[in-house]
Write a structure and sequence with these properties.
It holds the Pfam family Pect-lyase_RHGA_epim. By secondary structure, this protein is mainly beta. It is built from seven helices and 96 strands. It folds into seven domains: about 55-275, Pectate Lyase C-like (3 Solenoid); about 315-445, no CATH class; about 485-810, Pectate Lyase C-like (3 Solenoid); about 885-1005, Galactose-binding domain-like (Jelly Rolls), CATH 2.60.120.260; about 1010-1085, Sandwich (Immunoglobulin-like); about 1105-1190, Immunoglobulins (Immunoglobulin-like), CATH 2.60.40; about 1195-1279, Immunoglobulin-like.
Length: about 1300
């Protein structure tokens, strides 16, 4: 926003100035028309030539004093140009360019790799000290033009800091405005053109800077009004090809230094600055948007067009992003590592339209801690990742030619991705925690129109002859009192009679009571031919004609093929005391024919500015017309075609603060309260009116303080057509007023529109008479008028509009016509539209709230998201069973977990430090984000917060995250943390409640265990067995698992747990969870029936039996290594060892390796036992024969039950000693599977042992050893 307050008054006292300059030689100037060696866009006049004062361009002689003496003399004269012819000029000291003064040399536009020619200033001062006095320091409204600056002692192998080559702004000087640097080559300056951090001001004018600035090309900061930065070209190739001493070889180490350390453009507080037609090659950063170093919190906005960044590490680096927007159109990154990088902590809106963006690593990179709205439309992503970590990524109608995945949306981002094309097949990696909209339906949208490359055009008479109006026979007098009407007109007529030429007015004030006409072929020229508002110095015509006669003859008429340059016009009788009854005057300038030009012209206290409508004036050309008008600025019509209006710069402050010394100490300006000047312009000024004109091109035009910034109207049933780039309207009551249209369109690119005031103000209004169509490509709107848009006719199309302040009452009042917004951002507003306006609105792929609008009534409402982010529930953890508690209003804490956004928990009082809200997730989980959804009460987010986690709800440790809540939705993100409990502690204070409508956690429920059923199974070869794995907890997030077989020759298992038998044997099947690597097993036996076809060799049987007498039974035990051959076993008994008969039959089981059977004791003294094994085909085999004495005792140790039942066994020591026994139960490998110690007190009381571990079935030996060495061994069968 532009300041409208006046600065402290300061007055220039010329006697004092002269006293301070006793050594200055005030010799008579010799105004001369310079005929430079190289072509120029203008014919320039110089007061002095340094060569006439002994300055030698021999590269050896120090000429600092000569240069500064002539510059100071020009200050006293009131401004003018010091000419420096071709040569190498050694400047051991530093230079100050006074107000109104230009230093100008002979300059040939450099070519990469070719020698630098023309005027070269050799800089030596300040080596090693970047903060030393700059080589050139500029006062307001001064200029450095057409020369090169070279540092001979700068060595490419050892880059050394120097102060800036050009500093805009003199320390401790009132004013730093309209410093001009044009056509300057920085051969090897450490820093090029820098706007002073010590002396704030406005409107730096930079055009045509080339070369190899090493650390910074330009840096803008500390300005309060629009800067114009155009036609920059920085590359290492300029120095290496310069042909100057110590120039590096192309490709040598200095290029690496620039790549690691150099920045082409540093843009800090720039207050809308225009940056256009830029080429930056080989720097660390091509364009760097950075915070102000002088005004805390100030960041750049503005518009950028036609920029290319080649071979930079980062093409465009946005360290900060303004909420008002920062716009890029036709900006390209080529072979950079990263095309566009948007840094942590950024917010606001970055708009990219018709850009080609690519990077060897990243095409676009947005930090996860950014909330920027990154807009892309009709762009081409040539190469590299599009990694959007945070903010809203709005991409529509683009071409993604990069590799898959073409777009990666991170947890903290969301996307509106619509209508794009993907040359390599679409793959969008969407990891967003929030609601996004992705739609690949093709779109048909108007393409960004081609805009001509803009550079200063050649505007000068064909006949280069100078007529000095103050010389005889004309004898004009610049004393402010003598009427010079006749003198000046006589000079103009004489030039015309002679065939054309330049009528020159030396600096001073020329009173003119009549009217002037510039004939064809003639130029009226002042001494300060530089881009500036009226600031005091220079050639000033004071206009007196036709006061109170608005219909009178315009003061200055420009004939066809004529022009005016470098002049200031002032109306001395427009005194502030007249306001609000401002006397009316006719237009200041009227163009009466084609090919007329007005360049570097200032006007102040003017009632109406320039008339381009009374006559047909094709190909009119305006470039940097600047200052102040009361009623009408510039009006175009008359069926004119092909006109160009560039770089208008108007601000009410020029008149309102004109009494200040920095603005020229004008007598007709207010000296105290100046608000009346602003009020009058707010109520009356129509700045730019376009009527019946065709193909009008407007470029980087700006006004502050008007009723209407631009008016489109019909004349004779025809309205304007053309194209407008960089329109800036600030402080307007009705910024854009559309009343009529031509047969074609009037389209706008990169517009910056500000309107503010009461509820009657608006950004844009259309009248019923407007039946045309206008498209705005990239536009930023702020200032908060009463109603954003008022439409009563026509069609307005907006692509990538950013309405930071939509309007006090509502965004749109649509009574008629159609409003179409696409890929735009309309920030929160109380009411979107007036009632019944829905059918006149089309909103697509935008951030826009449907406040008080039934979206189904809209002409189109598609793929839009709201300003408050919605959580994508799909990505949140299941909250079933969770509970919540709170430090206040605990009974309602559950509402934050009830999946009902209309309910909430709140503190029932203002927020104070220490309030807490705790959630128990019931299981230990791993998580990385928490969302506090307060969409239903958007202002009730926490003033501050700290988040904690705990496994037990008692020990919380240090905070896992801290921050400040966001409106509507607060995302708390961090690296993976593990815990069961989450606690949010409110750390700030504000009047609102702290509310949570829904509490979401993003992460995973960890797997605690896995089990498998059955744990063992027996099945045949070629059959299958289905195993089932059960994962706990049942709501574990990642239940993925893998199955594996220990012996795939026996059995295989697939991904579902289905086991297939391959051959006889045992296989262990293991299931493993991917989360936590938890495992479980199933031991499975596969058996085969194929053996029934094979004969059995009885001699090959490999089994033996054992028999053991007990109290009333005989136990028989055996093992069978050939367990796959038998179907049953028969236990046989014999009294004599010859004749056997069966006593028991046991079915074979391939899963068992050990068997037992029981037989009753016999009466006879002895018995014999053997085993018969029978196969499926009734072949048999026999075991050994064992003899048992049934009537005998069991010796000293009696064991029962045997076979064992369960895991318990009783022992009775009938013949052993009492005392302590060491017991061991040993398997067939003589390994102890159980051991213990018992104490025997007598022979009749049994001792019981029991084992808790599982012991496999089998034949075991129980060993009992007394402490005296006595040993007993008994066979024990465990079935």
């Amino acid at each position: 926003m532009k300041t409208i307050l006046s600065f402290p008054q300061k007055k220039t006292i010329f006697l004092l100035l002269i006293a301070l300059l006793p050594l200055v030689s005030i010799s008579a100037q010799s105004w001369q028309l310079i005929n430079p060696l190289y072509p120029t866009k203008d014919a320039f006049v110089a007061a002095y030539n340094v060569a006439d004062y002994g300055a030698s361009g021999d590269s050896v002689t120090d000429v600092t004093a000569i240069f500064q003496s002539r510059l100071d003399t020009l200050r006293i004269l009131g401004g003018g140009t010091l000419f420096v012819p071709r040569g190498k000029y050694r400047i051991n000291g530093t230079l100050i360019i006074p107000k109104g003064v230009t230093i100008r040399g002979e300059w040939q536009k450099p070519v990469k790799g070719q020698a630098i020619k023309g005027t070269i200033l050799m800089a030596f001062s300040g080596r090693g000290d970047e903060n030393a006095t700059p080589f050139i320091t500029m006062e307001p409204s001064s200029a450095v033009m057409d020369l090169a600056i070279w540092y001979p002692e700068q060595l490419p192998a050892n880059i050394t800091p120097y102060p800036p080559a050009i500093m805009f702004g003199k320390p401790n000087y009132f004013g730093n405005d309209f410093c001009n640097a044009k056509n300057v080559t920085f051969v090897n300056a450490y820093s090029g053109a820098i706007f002073s951090r010590l002396n704030g001001g406005s409107c730096p004018i930079i055009n045509g800077l080339y070369g190899t600035p090493l650390s910074r090309g330009i840096e803008i900061d500390n300005i309060a009004d629009v800067g114009h930065i155009e036609s920059l070209d920085f590359s290492p190739a300029y120095w290496s090809g310069s042909g100057l001493a110590n120039a590096p070889a192309a490709g040598s180490s200095f290029e690496g230094w620039i790549y690691q350390n150099g920045t082409g453009i540093v843009m800090r507080r720039n207050d809308w600055s225009y940056t256009c037609f830029v080429n930056i090659e080989g720097y660390n950063k091509g364009f760097h948007a950075a915070p102000s170093l002088t005004t805390v919190g100030s960041i750049p906005n503005g518009h950028n067009y036609g920029m290319t960044f080649t071979n930079c590490k980062t093409g465009i680096y946005l360290e900060v992003v303004s909420s008002d927007g920062i716009m890029f159109a036709r900006c390209n990154t080529v072979s950079c590592e990263t095309g566009v990088a948007i840094a942590s902590g950024t917010s606001g809106t970055a708009q990219f339209h018709t850009c080609s963006i690519g990077g060897t690593l990243n095409g676009i990179s947005v930090d996860p801690a950014s909330t920027t709205r990154t807009m892309l439309e009709q762009c081409t992503i040539t190469k590299g990742k599009v990694d959007v970590g945070g903010g809203t990524f709005m991409a529509s109608d683009n071409d993604f030619n990069n590799n898959q995945p073409q777009i990666m949306l991170g947890n903290n981002s969301r996307g509106i991705v619509t209508g794009n094309r993907f040359s390599k097949g679409v793959n969008i990696q969407n990891n967003s925690l929030y609601t996004s909209t992705i739609d690949h339906t093709p779109l048909t949208l108007k393409a960004l129109p081609a805009f001509p490359d803009v550079s200063a055009e050649t505007k000068k008479p064909s006949r280069a002859v100078l007529y000095i109006a103050t010389k005889a026979p004309f004898n004009a007098v610049a004393n402010g009192t003598t009427d010079n009407t006749t003198a000046i007109q006589s000079a103009l007529n004489k030039a015309s009679q002679d065939g054309g030429g330049i009528v020159f007015l030396p600096p001073g004030k020329y009173k003119v009571t009549g009217h002037l006409t510039v004939p064809s072929g003639v130029e009226l020229k002042g001494s300060a031919d530089l881009s500036s508002v009226p600031m005091g110095p220079g050639s000033i015509i004071e206009v007196y004609a036709d006061k109170n006669n608005a219909a009178g003859t315009p003061f200055l008429k420009l004939s066809a093929n004529s022009g005016v340059r470098g002049m200031t016009f002032n109306y001395p009788e427009q005194v502030y005391s007249n306001l609000p009854n401002v006397p009316a005057y006719p237009y200041l300038i009227q163009v009466t024919g084609s090919d007329a030009y007005i360049v570097n012209v200032g006007m102040r206290a003017t009632y109406s500015g320039i008339d381009l409508f009374t006559y047909k004036c094709d190909n009119h050309y305006l470039d940097f017309v600047a200052g102040h008008v009361f009623k009408n600025g510039i009006r175009v019509g008359g069926n004119s075609a092909g006109g160009k209006i560039y770089n208008l710069q108007f601000n009410t402050i020029v008149y309102a603060a004109g009494s200040e010394s920095k603005f020229g100490s004008w007598a007709n300006s207010p000296t105290g309260d100046n608000s009346g000047a602003y009020d009058y312009n707010y109520a009356n000024l129509d700045f730019l009116t376009l009527g019946n004109c065709q193909n009008e091109v407007l470029y980087n035009d700006f006004v502050f303080g008007s009723h209407s910034g631009i008016v489109l109207k019909s004349e004779n049933s025809s309205g304007p057509t053309g194209l407008i780039l960089g329109l800036g309207i600030d402080g307007s009551r009705n910024s854009m007023r559309f009343e009529g249209a031509g047969a074609g369109n009037m389209d706008f690119i990169n517009s910056q529109i500000v309107a503010y005031g009461d509820t009657t103000t608006t950004y844009l209004s259309s009248q019923p008479s407007y039946t045309g169509s206008a498209t705005l490509f990239n536009s930023d709107w702020w200032g908060n008028p009463g109603k954003g848009l008022i439409m009563n006719g026509g069609t307005i199309n907006m692509q990538q509009a950013n309405f930071h302040h939509p309007g006090q009452l509502r965004w749109g009042n649509l009574s008629s016509g159609a409003l179409n917004v696409h890929n735009s951002a309309i920030w929160s507003v109380g009411s979107l539209l007036n009632g019944g306006a829905g059918p006149r609105l089309s909103a697509r792929s935008s951030i826009i709230d449907s406040t008080q609008l039934v979206t189904s009534t809209a002409a189109l409402w598609k793929n839009n998201l709201g300003n408050i982010w919605g959580v994508s529930i799909v990505g949140a953890m299941d909250r079933q069973g969770w509970t919540a508690t709170a430090s206040a209003n605990n009974g309602n804490a559950k509402n934050a977990l009830d999946s009902n956004a209309t309910t909430r928990w709140d503190t029932q009082g203002s927020q104070v430090n220490g309030q807490s809200f705790t959630v128990d997730m019931k299981t230990v989980n791993t998580f990385h984000a928490i969302v506090l959804d307060v969409t239903g009460s958007p202002d009730d987010s926490p003033a501050g917060y700290s988040a904690y986690t705990s496994n037990d709800g008692i020990n919380w440790g240090t905070a896992i995250a801290t921050g400040v809540g966001n409106t509507g939705m607060t995302l708390i993100s961090f690296t993976d943390k593990t815990g069961r409990y989450i606690k949010i502690v409110q750390t700030g204070a504000k009047g609102n409640y702290w509310s949570i409508h829904e509490f979401y956690v993003f992460g995973k429920v960890d797997v605690a265990s896995v089990s498998v059923t059955p744990v063992s199974a027996r099945f045949k070869v070629d059959s299958t067995l289905q195993l089932t794995a059960s994962i706990l907890p049942v709501n574990a997030t990642n239940k993925a698992k893998v199955w594996a077989s220990s012996n795939t020759a026996v059995a295989t298992v697939d991904s579902t747990g289905k086991v297939k038998g391959k051959s006889a044997g045992v296989a262990v099947i293991t299931v493993t969870t991917l989360d936590g690597n938890k495992t479980a097993i199933s031991t499975d036996t596969v058996y085969s029936t194929a053996f029934i076809k094979a004969p059995i060799d009885p001699a090959a049987a490999q089994f033996r039996i054992k028999a053991q007498p007990h109290l009333d039974q005989i136990s028989i035990a055996w093992s069978s290594p050939d367990k796959w051959k038998w179907v049953r076993f028969e236990v046989q008994r014999s009294a004599d060892g010859a004749q056997f008969s069966p006593v028991a039959t046991v079915t074979a089981d391939p899963e068992k390796a050990f068997y037992t059977a029981l037989d009753a004791r016999q009466a006879n003294d002895e018995a014999y036992y053997r085993l018969q094994a029978i196969s499926a085909n009734n072949q048999v085999a026999y075991s050994n024969v064992v003899k048992v004495n049934p009537s005998g005792t069991e010796g000293g140790l009696f064991v029962y039950p045997n076979p064992v039942t369960g895991s318990r066994l009783s022992l009775q020591f009938r013949e052993g000693a009492t005392g302590r026994y060491q017991l061991r139960l040993m398997n067939y490998m003589n390994q102890a599977v159980y051991q213990t110690t018992v104490n025997v007190t007598d022979k009749h009381t049994p001792v019981t042992i029991q084992w808790n571990n599982k012991i496999l079935p089998g034949y075991y030996l129980l060993e009992a050893v007394h402490s005296n060495g006595q040993r007993f061994v008994k066979a024990v069968v465990i079935p």
